[in-house]
Amino acid sequence: MKQTNQVEETLLSSAHVQLDKHICVKQLLVSSLIALGGIVAILLMMVMDESDSTLSMALLPIGVILLLFALYRIFMKSHETIYKPTGSVVNSGSLYMDTIELQNLQQMIKKNHFPAASRVSFKEGGNGRLDYLVSKDGRFVAIQLFQFVPYTYESVSDKLYYTDDKAVSIAHCLNI
Asked: CB neighbours of 62 closer than 8 A, spacing ≥ 6?
């Protein structure tokens, strides 16, 4: 009997029409300066005479570490997601909660009512997981709920997208 596993597309792995990925020029420039520092350290090591071998030996690992750190920043940290209508940067993450909080949040989603007075409390770990995307200006929020079943988190809600005032109230209720 042959089994196939399908990887379900989650909120954090999917694209949205109002979101766009950009290269952050500021991060790219900082990474370039760090790389330049690494190159200068390696070149200094090559130019130094043998009289100060301790400093010369220290410059090589420093230069290599700076170059590797710069490459990491260029390939992993130089991209950002933007909410197109406002141009605001979008942050993403996952929050964990107990089963009771998960059920409360499911009821809020089902009723489409997120009261300002209530706040969902999150923990370091738990049976429930909330994946979210939220713009810095609070005008865009996307959420998806998951519940832990043996060995994995399975989706218990659709990917939900909110904008404008509704997004602001959800971000306040979830404290994201």
From this structure: 38, 41
In degrees and rounded to multiples of 5, residue 89 shows phi and psi of -70, 140
Q: Which two tokens stand for residue 76?
A: 């992993």
* CA 143 – CA 159 distance, rounded (Å): 6
How confident is the chain (176 residues) per 10-residue block, as mean pLDDT? 51 78 90 95 84 81 95 89 89 89 86 76 85 90 90 87 86 80
In sequence order, what are the residues at sequence separation of 6 or more whose Cβ sits closer than 8 angstroms to the Cβ of residue 165?
Answer: none
CA 139 to chain centre: 18
Look up tokens 């989650």; give the residue.
10
Read off the tokens for 72.
Answer: 């990491």
| pTM of the model as a whole | 0.72
C-alpha 91: how far from chain center: 6
Q: How far is it, in rounded angstroms, from Cα 16 to Cα 12?
A: 10
- Residue 3 has, within 13 A of its CA and on its CB side, a CA count of 1
User: In the numeric block, which tokens belong to residue 46?
Assistant: 């090559």
Of the CA atoms within 13 Å of residue 71, those in its CB half-sphere come to 8
Q: Which of 136, 138, 149 is nearest to 171 (CA)?
A: 138
Query: What gap in Å lies between CA 65 and CA 44, rounded to an integer?
Result: 15
pLDDT given at position 8: 60
Q: What is the pLDDT of residue 40?
A: 94
